[in-house]
């Protein structure tokens, strides 16, 4: 009975899966193929530097879905009075009630969120809401607590910016905060004061541009000195109701201050005298909001998505301002973006890492190959000029050295050395012992070599030496040293053998006018020694005297 029941349950489960699977697949495919409509309410227009980055990030975040985005701009920087809000409200109501098919509402910055909170129940009560770039964390928290609403707050990195200010300008300890009375400005001000309350060591003054006439602002800024650093939060409005775009505001501050570093925390639009800072990334904020919107359109519940308050930053600095204050790239946080950066090898590498790394690899390989070829060729050349048995210079090497000496016209001397009765050694003890004798003779000769005397093996039992700054006294000393060092018996595998040598010596220009014939003269002196019974030396000059 139990077995039958189990079979029935399994059969029923499989049947349900077969029925639901196509429906689930169809639902997923519908989500990918259907077109979604998003109403995007922006607090500001494109004159605000944050708007293009926010839009680009949001669009990249929802990529993959068939999306139509309708953008509406409050232009709150200029039009935020009661009449302005009422006119915008009429337009938006007309649009919403005419279209009536928006799948999601997206809002950017504080004025748009405040408008959405105040009017949501009347305009779009049941439509999911995603917000981004909200300076006032309290309002962002309130909005996230509403049903079907979530988003990301603009959490500026006051902590790390303050540490960076102290590192770059250790002698400046007065922080001048510039803000205004706009919704965004007051949101930034509230968050700054929360930061300041955690740091009793901060000395600061607040300049609210909305409370100053234009001339009053000039006087306030001109009064700043070498102890001050400016933290530029917001400046969209002055007390004369003049509106300022971000570049205009930055130019105004720079023009009316004298060498005061200006930090900016909420825009990548540095320049116009702004030094830079660890800046809130509007692109990343928009991208995160876009991915949240995409998940909601794919079926996720906004109420299961908590408010995102993590710091999203990119560090930007302006090269001209860095030069002005003597700041180098290595002093900045790792990964900093330098606007208007000088053309350097480091910049080229960062911007072309793949090509640069490939070029470096190729260069390293080429260097390795060239180095290998160089040392291989050098080793071959050295081997060609070195006697294999004794590791002394050979005939080729000594001839090259003589050619160089002759070309330079340098005085030099030549010593010719033969091992006496070497054929008898080979015949008696064999070639192995003969090689041992040659190696032992070479070792003793090398002990006599110095900067003025060099020895070589010409082949068989023949050796020679070249020396510089020749004189008869030097001839005799070299020849006698060779005789002395050969006085002791040589150790071989056949036992100790007494080996003697015959020597002939000649010098240029004392003995011969043609330096090419010096070896011939030394050979003649050598044969005189052999004729006289071997085991001695003869100077060519002595042969002339005897003749």
How far from one another are the termini? 139 Å
Distinct helical segment count: 19
Uncertain regions: pLDDT < 50 for 5+ in a row? 19-29
Question: What number is the mean pLDDT?
Answer: 88
User: What overall form do the CA principal axes indicate?
Assistant: elongated
- How large is the share of residues in beta strands? 15-25%
Helix share, percent: 40-55%
Structural class: alpha/beta
Q: Report the sheet with the most strands, covering strand number, pairing sense and barrel closure.
A: 5 strands, parallel
Number of strand segments: 19
Please give the radius of gyration in angstroms: 47 Å
Strand order of the largest sheet: 2-1-3-4-5
Report on the architecture of this protein:
The protein is of the alpha/beta class and 547 residues long. Helices cover 49% and strands 19% of the residues. The chain is built from 19 helices and 19 strands. It starts with a helix and ends with a helix.
Quick rundown:
This protein has about 550 residues and is of the alpha/beta class. Helix content is about 50%, strand content about 20%.
Which terms summarize this structure?
19 helices; 49% helix; 547 residues; 5-stranded parallel beta sheet
Task: List the SSEs and their pairings.
Layout: H1 2-33, E1 35-42, H2 50-61, E2 66-73, H3 82-99, E3 104-108, H4 110-123, E4 129-134, H5 137-144, E5 149-153, H6 158-168, E6 174-179, H7 183-197, E7 203-208, H8 214-222, E8 228-232, H9 246-255, E9 262-264, E10 276-280, H10 282-297, E11 313-318, H11 319-325, E12 337-339, H12 345-351, H13 353-384, H14 395-408, E13 412-419, H15 422-429, H16 431-448, E14 453-459, E15 462-468, H17 472-485, E16 490-492, E17 495-497, E18 501-508, H18 518-531, E19 536-539, H19 540-546
Parallel strand pairs: 1-2, 1-3, 3-4, 4-5, 6-7, 6-8, 8-9, 11-12, 18-19
Antiparallel strand pairs: 10-11, 13-15, 13-18, 14-15, 16-17
Helix pairs in contact: 2-10, 12-13, 15-16
